[in-house]
Design goal:
This protein is mainly α. The protein folds into 2 domains: 3-52 and 177-238, Orthogonal Bundle (Endonuclease Iii, domain 2); 59-172, Endonuclease III, domain 1 (Orthogonal Bundle), CATH 1.10.340. It is built from 12 helices and 3 strands; from the N terminus they run E-E-E-H-H-H-H-H-H-H-H-H-H-H-H. It has a 3-stranded antiparallel beta sheet with strand order 1-2-3. Helix 6 packs across helix 7 (124-141) and helix 10 (181-190) crosses helix 12 (216-227). The two termini are 27 Å apart.
Length: 254
């Protein structure tokens, strides 16, 4: 799909909101055999931003808003969120970090004590051991301060690009894209990228998505994917993005 870019001056204001001065706009030309509008990144994300304003924020952004915004806390919370609904992982993260929010304090807990605090999350026993190991290594190897380095973060067991990028984006303001199942599904359904796995979607998005939206994309598309562009029977008839969306792979919708 052809891509045209128009560059304008931009200022990145952080992961929780769009830039005040909008950045380069990515426009994908509409296929000639459809009546869809050319895919305008800036306009589409503006519409999504408006659509999700009444929905709960994605769990890790909400956690940061509640005072747990350090890189260590965000990384721990992301591990708890893997294959777990936000409605489950957020309260579990708040319980755990309310008890011990620093590497030193968390390392003093036993895996069994951690497990008791996070029990509702998926794979809680294994995650309890992962969380404890991260706390101990952060305390002993990094003097209690996690480096803001994606390679270091991904060297911990259970931490992949999604968690590393999301934690760095929220806690440190790094311009990185975090691709979960919602980001992968929605951007491919739009026809904005075409990729078979989240990892390939990440690479494709890095090539076309303007940098000021890299962190915000996850914050927007998690609630959008949960409530509007759902995995089965998406709400296409009322979706504000429908004029731009190619509806790739959609066989039934509401």
């Amino acid at each position: 799909m052809a891509v045209k870019k128009q560059s304008r001056s931009t200022t990145t204001t952080g992961p929780r909101r769009a830039p005040r001065s909008q950045s380069a706009r990515t426009v994908h030309a509409a296929p000639s055999d459809t009546d869809k509008l050319p895919f305008d990144t800036e306009e589409v994300l503006r519409r999504v931003r408006h659509e999700v304003r009444s929905f709960a924020d994605a769990a890790m952004f909400e956690l940061a808003a509640k005072g747990h915004g350090s890189l260590f806390e965000q990384l721990i919370a992301c591990i708890l969120s893997i294959r777990t609904l936000d409605e489950v992982s957020l309260p579990a993260s708040l319980r755990l970090l309310g008890r011990a929010h620093t590497p030193e304090a968390l390392a003093r807990l036993t895996p069994a004590e951690i497990d008791a605090l996070i029990r509702p999350v998926t794979f809680h026993e294994g995650k309890a051991h992962q969380v404890h190991a991260i706390a101990v290594r952060t305390r002993d190897e990094f003097n209690g301060q996690l480096p803001a380095d994606p390679d270091v973060l991904q060297s911990f067991k259970g931490v992949g690009p999604k968690c590393a990028h999301l934690a760095l984006g929220i806690a440190c303001g790094h311009e990185v894209i975090s691709v979960d199942i919602h980001v992968h599904r929605v951007t491919n359904r739009w026809g904005y990228v075409k990729a078979s796995t989240p990892e390939r979607t990440l690479a494709a998005l890095e090539a076309v998505l303007p940098r000021p939206y890299w962190v915000e994309l996850n914050r927007l598309l998690v609630p959008f994917g949960k409530h509007v562009c759902t995995g089965t029977r998406p709400k296409c008839s009322t979706c504000p993005v429908l004029p731009y969306c190619r509806q790739e792979g959609v066989t039934s919708h509401r």
